[in-house]
């Protein structure tokens, strides 16, 4: 893909073909959130008040984990203003929905809405973008990580999906805290501390054995579900100079019933085109995208996308490719040679082709001995 167009350009082409009601908020989405909230509270009470066999507690934990993730998906939609428009109500409902994942609404809107959406897949400005080779070479920690054999690293990377969202949220708090006006910093801090205080407080009330099933295990499950989507949203796509959703985003496909349970979170390219549109209408947007730009639109089954992530590294080389640094194995990205059903790499000649991209001499020394 050589040409890039802004999300506004695509939106201007599709909008005339959409009915006016798709641009209105959809408060009825809150009904699904209420159901998940009741399920979550009921599960917490059952685990806390009854002495059940660990197997039953585990099964309830799985349900809680799915509920935590789905509330997070709804919180994401709420904080884009697609459910209600009043700012105070939007933030209040968003805070409740994100409470299990311990992310505050002000931080989320700063990190996700104002930065990730505006600068998607820009190496320097997108807080969710993965690094390029030059940034990797400047980081001692990343250089150490990328000396670990690829298969082992891939295993731990997928295992880390169980806590990555929580860890990244904490990192974003420190990253963006100074950007808030002084009067808002206390609010941001309280929105971060209160959920954690409530969950840690629950630990002292019910004890660790029950807390493990009531919160910790559901949090890990919720993280894994949320990050399974987030990991496929952009990590197979190239870094781009223009915020082009058809170049930098991927929509995955899941069974219809999962789309219903997860508030159509799988429609990610559509979301980046119309972030203030309810995901209820994304299937309609997808229909027009596939009709108007079938050669630019990227979609694949969720399982296939996750397998492709497992088989490819997460370091960008010259924006449009991915590289395994020590071996010099270069893979394509979506729109730039990546075939998910047949993932292949080309061998880069480290000294000639990568040259000064390896800022650290340690990389060169290790590569020469391979």
Automatic annotation (TrEMBL):
Fatty acid desaturase domain span: 56-300
InterPro entries assigned to the protein according to its UniProt record, in alphabetical order: FA_desaturase_dom, Fatty_acid_desaturase
Keyword Transmembrane helix appears in the UniProt entry: yes
GO biological process, one term: lipid biosynthetic process
Top-level taxon: Bacteria
This protein's GO CC annotations: membrane
GO molecular function, one term: oxidoreductase activity, acting on paired donors, with oxidation of a pair of donors resulting in the reduction of molecular oxygen to two molecules of water
Pfam family, one: FA_desaturase
Transmembrane region(s): 30-50, 56-76, 144-167, 187-206, 212-230
Keywords: Membrane, Transmembrane, Transmembrane helix
Matches recorded under CDD domains: Delta6-FADS-like (cd03506)
PANTHER family membership: DELTA(5) FATTY ACID DESATURASE C-RELATED, FATTY ACID DESATURASE 2
Protein name listed in UniProt: Fatty acid desaturase
């Amino acid at each position: 893909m050589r040409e890039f167009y802004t999300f506004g350009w695509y939106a201007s082409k599709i909008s005339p073909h959409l009915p006016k009601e798709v641009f209105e908020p959809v408060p009825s989405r809150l009904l699904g959130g209420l159901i998940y909230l009741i399920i979550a509270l009921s599960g917490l009470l059952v685990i806390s008040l009854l002495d059940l066999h660990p197997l039953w507690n585990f099964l309830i934990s799985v349900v809680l984990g799915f509920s935590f993730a789905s509330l997070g998906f709804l919180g994401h939609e709420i904080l884009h203003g697609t459910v209600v428009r009043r700012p105070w109500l939007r933030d209040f409902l968003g805070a409740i929905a994100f409470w299990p994942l311990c992310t505050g609404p002000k931080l989320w809107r700063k990190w996700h809405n104002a930065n990730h959406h505006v600068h998607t897949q820009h190496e320097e400005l997108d807080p969710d973008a993965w690094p390029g080779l030059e940034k990797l070479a400047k980081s001692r920690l990343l250089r150490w990580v990328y000396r670990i054999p690829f298969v082992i690293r891939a295993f731990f990377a997928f295992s880390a999906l169980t806590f990555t969202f929580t860890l990244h949220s904490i990192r974003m708090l420190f990253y963006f805290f100074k950007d808030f006006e002084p009067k808002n910093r206390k609010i941001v801090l309280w929105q971060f501390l209160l959920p954690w205080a409530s969950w840690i407080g629950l630990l002292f009330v019910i004890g660790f054995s029950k807390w493990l099933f009531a919160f910790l295990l559901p949090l890990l499950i919720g993280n894994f579900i949320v990050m399974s989507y987030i990991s496929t949203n952009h990590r197979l796509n190239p870094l781009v100079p223009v915020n082009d959703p058809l170049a930098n985003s991927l929509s995955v496909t899941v069974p219809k019933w999962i789309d219903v349970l997860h508030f159509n979170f799988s429609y990610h390219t559509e979301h980046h085109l119309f972030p203030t549109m309810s995901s209820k209408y994304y299937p309609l947007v997808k229909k027009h995208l596939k009709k108007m730009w079938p050669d630019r639109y990227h979609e694949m089954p969720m399982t296939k996308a996750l397998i492709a992530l497992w088989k490819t590294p997460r370091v960008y080389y010259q924006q449009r490719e991915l590289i395994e640094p020590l071996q010099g194995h270069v893979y394509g990205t979506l729109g730039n040679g990546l075939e998910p059903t047949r993932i292949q790499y080309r061998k880069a000649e480290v000294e000639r082709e990568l040259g000064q991209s390896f800022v650290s001499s340690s990389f060169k020394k290790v590569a020469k001995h391979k």
